[in-house]
């Protein structure tokens, strides 16, 4: 097995664990069992839990940004882009009631090592920037209004996911997002 394959398997298993149990629920010992390697091997790739958490959040942000930018590159209209955006959060819930990786980590903000906290903040900023770009395409021209609305949409979607997860019911997320659309918060 190549070193890159092992690192990727560690990252994949760690991502699922964090999305389910949060950063505090991430254990090198349990992760090693999930991947089928020794705990010391994880330390070879990620000397500290903070380095692993930072790498997870960085990858999550990069992957999500690539997906979102792809929506715009595909020439989808802005409203369809925003539907696809909210669908990602819904689909995460459908995957064993998991949460957005950065959202669940953000809930543990004070307990996160600096390198993880920094990456979680980058995820939020990336989302707000992308949403602002989409809103600008719809015709909102005031940059401050666009920025505030983008932040509100990001917070609303993350919050809807959290509420639905706490109830174990993805239809709650769908209902909340439909209400946001009906009220005009999300175009």
UniProtKB/TrEMBL annotation:
Gene3D superfamilies: Tetracycline Repressor, domain 2. The keyword Transmembrane helix does not apply. The keyword Lyase does not apply. InterPro entries: Homeodomain-like_sf (IPR009057), HTH_TetR (IPR001647), Tet_transcr_reg_TetR-rel_C_sf (IPR036271). It comes from the Bacteria. Residues 27-46 bind DNA. Keywords: DNA-binding, Transcription, Transcription regulation. Residues 4-64 form the HTH tetR-type domain. This is TetR/AcrR family transcriptional repressor of nem operon. It comes from Inquilinus ginsengisoli.
């Amino acid at each position: 097995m190549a070193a890159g394959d092992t690192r990727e398997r560690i990252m994949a298993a760690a991502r699922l664990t964090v999305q389910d149990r949060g950063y505090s629920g991430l254990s090198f010992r349990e992760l090693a069992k999930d991947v089928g390697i020794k705990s010391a091997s994880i330390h070879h790739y990620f000397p500290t839990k903070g380095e692993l958490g930072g790498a997870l959040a960085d990858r999550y942000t990069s992957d999500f940004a690539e997906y979102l930018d792809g929506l715009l590159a595909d020439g989808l209209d802005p409203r369809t882009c925003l539907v696809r955006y909210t669908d990602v959060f819904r689909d995460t819930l459908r995957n064993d009631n998991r949460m957005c990786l950065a959202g669940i980590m953000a809930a543990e903000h004070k307990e996160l090592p600096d390198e993880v906290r920094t990456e979680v903040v980058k995820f939020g900023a990336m989302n707000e920037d992308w949403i602002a770009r989409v809103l600008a395409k719809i015709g909102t021209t005031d940059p401050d209004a666009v920025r505030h609305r983008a932040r509100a949409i990001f917070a609303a979607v993350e919050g809807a996911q959290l509420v639905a997860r706490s109830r174990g019911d993805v239809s709650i997320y769908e209902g909340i997002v439909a209400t946001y659309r009906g009220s005009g918060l999300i175009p």
